[in-house]
Amino acid sequence: MFLFYLSRTPAVFDECDIDKAARDLLLQDIRHRLMPQAVKLRADFEVSCFAYEGIEAVRRALRRGLEFSTDELPIKPRIVSDTDESELRRHMEELEDANKEVSGDDDDDEEDAGNSEEDEEADESDDEEK
């Protein structure tokens, strides 16, 4: 009946026993539901480059894809990056090892802190001897 309504005038509803308010509400609902709906498309793809150009080659490829964007069909990329946790953990451990102080550095700091009072006393005794 709804498709029939589109091809004919609202006179189709004259055959039904409905009041004007219900008829207007029904017509408004039909118009709303039969409006063209926006369709969203999604495509997932992976991009990687292990050559010398690396990230620059990936950037050029993505920018080239954006050139196909139009007003009627805009392209809005959403970038998602995955990182392997074991690889990340390994890199973090390597960085922590590289940043560790050389053994013995802590001892020097403690000795300096302890010697500062002794140094002052030694300086005072040197002054008294003079």
Automatic annotation (TrEMBL):
What are the protein's GO molecular function terms? ribosome binding; RNA binding; translation initiation factor activity
Note one Pfam family from the annotation. Answer: EIF_2_alpha
Region of interest: Disordered: 76-130
Q: Which SUPFAM superfamilies match?
A: eIF-2-alpha, C-terminal domain
Keywords, alphabetical: Protein biosynthesis
In this chain, composition skew of type Basic and acidic residues spans 76-103
Q: Where does this protein have compositionally biased stretches of type Acidic residues?
A: 104-130
Give a GO cellular-component term: eukaryotic 48S preinitiation complex
Highest taxon listed in the record's lineage: Eukaryota
Tell me the InterPro entries matching this sequence: TIF2_asu_C (IPR024055), TIF_2_asu (IPR011488)
Q: Which PANTHER family match?
A: EUKARYOTIC TRANSLATION INITIATION FACTOR 2 SUBUNIT 1
Name by which UniProt lists this protein: Uncharacterized protein
Tell me which species this is from.
Answer: Dibothriocephalus latus (Fish tapeworm)
